[in-house]
Amino acid sequence: MSKAATGKKGFWRRLGDFLDGTRRFLVNAVFLLLLVALGFALFAKGPQLPEQFALDIQLRGLVVDQLSPVDPLTQIIDGEAVAETRLNDMIKAIDRGAADDRVSLLLLSLEELDHIGMSKASELAAAVERFKASGKPVVASSISYDQDSYLVASQADEVYLDAMGGVVIEGFGLYRNYFRSALDKLGVNIHVFRVGEFKSAMEPLMRDSMSEEAKEANHAWLGQLWAAYTEQVSANRGIKKDAVDNYVNQIDKVMAKHKGNLAAAAMSRQLVDALSNRREWREHMIGRVGANDDGEFNRVKHLDYLSLSDEHEPLVGDAVGILVAQGTIVDGEVTGNGIGGESFSELVRRAHEDDSIKSVVLRIDSGGGSAFASEQIRQELLALKKSGKPLVVSMGSAAASGGYWIAANADEIWATPATITGSIGIFGAFPTIEQSLAKLGITTDGIATTEIAGGLRPDRPLNPVVKRALQSGIEHGYRQFLSIVAQGRDMLPEQVDKIAQGRVWTGADAKHLGLVDQLGGLDDAVAAAANLAGMSEYRKKWVEPALPPMQALVAHLLESTGLKAGLAARSSLPQRWWQPLGRQIQAFLQLRDPTGLYAFCAECSAP
Asked: Given its phi and psi angles, is residue 37 left (phi above 0), alpha (psi -120 to 50 degrees) or beta?
């Protein structure tokens, strides 16, 4: 090798070493600065709670049972978190504030709420009622209210609305796009395999309209939810039972009477108590809770309150473990939103092997997904039960299809009246594009040694033998589902079949049918789990995915110093019609199952 070549090689090596050293220096410097900053926050005297203040429950984005995983380092750099609010944080703050003399009133801030749903709203309402029992007032405030936010607001003693806003309620509906004609034009054949008269997940690919069976089933449970909504609002507001229905169905006449002023229309129908602009609202609240140094009224956001108030939960002692199964059930590992067969099974094993956990509550908010992953998780839950630890299921907004699959063998199942559950059915689908290719002049030909070789090629028509075999497999999966439910609910498979067929039920109906044991929220389920384990005193222990060591350290420092609460969730765009559609499309795209069998509830993205 020449001296020139050797010199060039040495230059690039020295440059690489220099760049690598610089990178290491910068990473270490950033980490050192981070530790110094957190150290100051840890030992410096933090902010103090005012002597009198409004406890501000800030509902932002989606209300969830478990926050989506967020890298705390990224959160520090960006200054933002996912637009989500954890239901348990709000309930814990409300219950703590009820006994705190410094809390003068409870403020429900609803301007940035995207979605909570009736099930979670009912659990929040129970906490609000407990706060009212302390004798302190509850106030709701927003520029405008949509259907979700108004349901929460109606729980308040006083509902304030901006004079430029309004109350927009439209009722519940379930509309989908149907693609059969479009697929025909494209020459795409969707071969659907399903069991269940009411299993409608694949209808958008099979039809151009909703089937009569789907309309019948959906009308039943949507009607129940709407009746519950109007009854709750009318009772909360002390107005006639048909007042909400009349407001919604005659909104054109109501607005015309008030010359298009939606705020005045809401006021006239007693949906709100007062109209005010921002300045008037600020002065009103200062008069009630006083002003701070910035001239704003004294309020403390609920996450700040949890960090700054003196009460701390014990870290040792017997516990009820809480596992949250939230999102679509898929095969394998999941690091973000969703329930992975492998990753969630690992969480179940952690609860199983944790000697401090004496019983477990499985909180489900899922419309299901992979049948294989659902069964994998169910087997881990059965092993937990065999160890002697009671298992109680708490159903959130939805626990349907695969969500019910993993719930079926619990010692007790709790749901709210508005929970969407059932949808006991199985489906699979296989597309072929031979007609699409033919339009382009592309054909497929060849030979095989058996009847089914090449039978699952998407560029060939689906082989009839394969088609019959796939349908047989789907029917076997359905019988397996019926057997699991029958075993868990002490029923005969024939009895389960009558209430299965893919049909969706509300929690109230599910209790009547024997699919659910009790109606109540997460706290009720936790108390039941503790009782089954014979515990009179216990703590809650959330079993969550473990962060890598560095992220876990930062997260712990953020939690202990109160900085985590200061990194408030960012506001997000108000909910629009395309957001539920987007969530449904995302759920379909997430589906994966090694056997091609799915227990999935398409309706569960509705209320």
From this structure: alpha
* pLDDT for the residue 11: 57
The pLDDT confidence band at residue 379, using thresholds 50, 70 and 90, is very high
Catalytic site residues?
A: 199, 401
Burial class (CB in 10 A: 0-12, 13-18, 19+), 13: exposed
pLDDT at 38: 55
| pLDDT tens column, 290-332 | 999 888 999 999 999 998 886 666 777 899 999 999 999 999 9
Q: Say which amino acid occupies 150.
A: Y
For residues 579 and 212, give the distance between their C-alpha atoms in angstroms, rounded to a whole number.
26
Q: What is the 3-state secondary structure (H, E, C) of 522-548?
A: HHHHHHHHHHHCCCCCCEEEECCCCCC
Residue 114 backbone dihedrals phi, psi, to 5 degrees: -95, -50
How far apart are the C-alpha atoms of 109 and 133, rounded to whole Å? 20
Q: Domains in the chain, please, with CATH?
A: 53-173+215-308 (3.90.226.10), 319-429+460-546+577-605 (3.90.226.10)
pLDDT digits (tens, 9 = 90+) for 436-451: 989 899 999 999 898 8
Average of pLDDT values for 75-91?
A: 73
Which pair of structure tokens corresponds to residue 553? 């350290």
Report the distance separating Cα 568 and Cα 59, nearest Å: 11
Q: Is 520 left (phi over 0), alpha (psi -120 to 50) or beta?
A: left
Q: Which residues are bridge partners to 85 per DSSP?
A: 63
Question: Which pTM value belongs to this model?
Answer: 0.83
- pLDDT > 90 fraction of the chain, expressed in percent and rounded: 60
What are the start-end ranges of the H helices in 490-520? 493-499, 507-513
Classified as helix, coil or strand, 271 is: coil
Q: For residue 503, give the 3-state DSSP assignment.
A: coil
Give the span between the Cα atoms of 527 and 449, in whole angstroms: 62
Q: How far apart are CA 80 and CA 73, in angstroms?
A: 11
CB atoms within 10 A of CB 278: 11
Paired tokens of 586: 């995302």
For residue 336, the one-letter residue type is: G
